Amino acid sequence: MEMALFFLVLCLGVAGVWGGGDDGEGLFRASKLEMFVDKLPEMPRLRGYTVRNGVLAAGNLTIGMYEKTWKFHRDLPRSRVFAFGTSRETATVPGPTIEALQGVPTHVTWTNHLPSRHILPWDPTLSAPRPSADGVPTVVHLHGGVHPPHSDGHSLAWFTSSFSSTGPTWSRPTSSYPNYQTPGSLWYHDHAMALTRVNLLAGLFGAYSLLAPHHESPLRLPSGPRFDLPLVVFDRSFLSDGSIYMNSTGNNPQIHPQWQPEYFGDAIIVNGKAWPFLAVRRRRYRFRIINASNARFFRFFFTNGLHFVHVASDSVYLPKPVTSRKFLLAPSEIADVIVDFAQSQTDSAILANDAPYPYPSGDSTDEINGRVMKFVIGRRREVDPSQIPKRLFRYPAPAVHRAAMTRYIAMYEYESATGEPTHLYLNGLSFLERATETPREGSSEVWHVINLTDDNHPLHIHLALFVVLEQRELVDLDGFKNCMMRLNDAIKCRVGDHARGRRYTVPRYERGWKNVFKMRPGCATRILVRFKPLGPGTKFPFNATEEPGYVYHCHILDHEDNEMMRPLKLIP
């Protein structure tokens, strides 16, 4: 009882610096908002390169993080947010889309102009930064980027306003992105230790497109700002005054006064507007769909039967286009799809969602969170210069026989005596314990990811790409889990005898190289991880072995913030 009171007092004390919460009084019901009344915003676009005397050169951007207000819906009061932009006036939620060119470096100086106090509640019992002065710690990670460790947005490389306080692995204010990787869709977001969930809820994320016109133009995919659009999808709840709502009471308040295992909002937001609409022509469009939610999975489909043509998954093109009527997108995953509105039999189409939350065994969606946005389709037919090619890009096939090592990565969720989650670990270790995954640069490894929890965990590996080889159900799961909880050793617990249940088919649109994949509960997922460029050569064009290294983690942000993340240290 004394310990519980201590944590509650500590939480209240820190809230004075980090922001207050709300117990739900004044919670605004999203069902009161009329859908499809706000036009889909087009986020500002920033060039990540320059042209000097007709020659392409590296781009130098300064992008700040600001507190401001944002209008999420016509009938909702303005909300306090944190937003990326080149100034407070131009900052947006999500932030500006950075358009970079393959092979042309982009240098971004990320500046923190945030206030001394956070706008959302923060749990002091997590391993969050303790700045020496007031301020909100942040650090930016380019998700899907291939870049040196000092520019990866390491969780302990945080900094506060004017760099008055910095984390133990912070080294420089400017991040350098070589863009020496395959063209595709990426996104950037805050990555501060134990604060990622609240910093993203506040609005700190944006899209990043890496373009290669010389290679992509011959494909004749829909292109240009009118027909190639990022759709950044996320969920939020609000109070009646427009404030973003986050529960300030934890599910285990005696242990974590504020932390909840997952955040779900009842309003679905796309590019900063709740249930927006977009007027489209009867032709093909390309949508780079980014799931920027903390924990919500989306299973997208069109209510009028339109289909999707997948051309890329996460940051890498597929070998050839793949058609689907419905697809599942986990937090942080990117689906790069073509939609041909000329095929529509109706003058409108609603993009919908039917993924349970938490996924896969949670509540069903309803008429509120089961709707995403509306497309209003013009009636006039037109000549469409774009096409869907038969083939896209050919990249190296997975060479399992050349794997240098096999590793076993076990996912654990720990519970209190009341059965409520307390924290989550990878391989039974916290983030701050020494790195045990130390692959050699230029190598590939086979990882068996063993999910011993009831949740589907989207695993994200920084720097690397991987191919999913197999996903198998674990038989006698309880017996195997009991052994793993005691020994934390997959070999001694005879994982091979258990990973022989039902084999789950990897969707065709996810059979290419990825940086995130959904680790199904009660299953062992075998992946081939590549620690070298996806192309010629075995070395990165920078020192990938330097400090502070990289990380891998579950991308449900509430899990990541409560220790479901581990260091990843490459060796020469």
TrEMBL record:
Single Gene Ontology MF annotation: copper ion binding
Keyword list (alphabetical) reads: Copper, Endoplasmic reticulum, Glycoprotein, Membrane, Metal-binding, Oxidoreductase, Signal
Residues in domain Plastocyanin-like?
A: 265-353, 420-568
Question: Mainly localized where?
Answer: endoplasmic reticulum
Where does the record say this protein resides?
Answer: Endoplasmic reticulum membrane
Please tell me one Gene Ontology term that the record gives under cellular component: endoplasmic reticulum membrane
Q: Name one Pfam family in it.
A: Cu-oxidase
GO biological process terms held by the UniProt record = cellular response to phosphate starvation
Q: How does it sit in the membrane?
A: Peripheral membrane protein
Q: Which PANTHER family match?
A: MULTICOPPER OXIDASE LPR1-LIKE
Q: This chain belongs to which protein, by name?
A: Multicopper oxidase LPR2
